[in-house]
Write a structure and sequence with these properties.
This protein is of the alpha/beta class and about 130 residues long. The chain has one domain (about 1-120): Glycogen Phosphorylase B (Rossmann fold). Helix content is about 35%, strand content about 20%. It is built from four helices and five strands; from the N terminus they run βαββααβαβ. The chain has helices spanning about 10-25, 60-65, 65-80, 95-105, and strands spanning about 1-5, 30-40, 55, 90, 110. A five-stranded parallel sheet has the order 3-2-1-4-5, sandwiched between helices. The radius of gyration is 14 Å and the shape is globular. It starts with a strand and ends in a 15-residue tail after the last strand.
Length: about 130
């Protein structure tokens, strides 16, 4: 089983999401647990025995480039996640990016916040 945790916020928010990885490790000891975060937040995750792989979203390079470059950055990041074939994707942020990525990653189980919007329909568990 492969599980993806996503936290696209700041470094402190990323730190506060790490107990989820520990609890998932207890519940699914043989699972591969991956964590997706914004560039600059990976320091909070490196060396964490409960996280097998970190996926870094290069937000600053996407934000500071032209429209086409930004689209390419988004599509490349999505392709990287999709290639991992996750069983479960957990969006720990109320933003839409994680819900879209969970859906587009192909994960059968998608967990996140119910914001009462169309995006919430992309989740299997709210």
């Amino acid at each position: 089983m492969k599980i993806l945790i996503m936290k696209f916020r700041n470094i402190g928010d990323t730190l506060l999401a790490t107990p989820l990885a520990a609890n998932l490790r207890l519940a699914y000891p043989k699972a591969q647990i991956h964590f997706a975060c914004n560039e600059g937040c990976e320091a909070m995750l490196e060396g964490n025995a409960n996280i097998d792989k970190i996926h870094i979203y290069r937000r600053s390079s996407a934000k500071n480039s032209g429209f086409l470059k930004r689209i390419k950055t988004e599509l490349d990041f999505l392709a990287k996640l999709k290639s991992e074939h996750f069983d479960i994707a957990i969006n720990t942020t109320e933003g839409d990016r994680g819900a879209y990525l969970a859906f587009l990653s192909g994960a059968k189980t998608r967990i996140g916040f119910d914001r009462g919007s169309f995006v919430s329909r992309l989740l299997t568990h709210k």
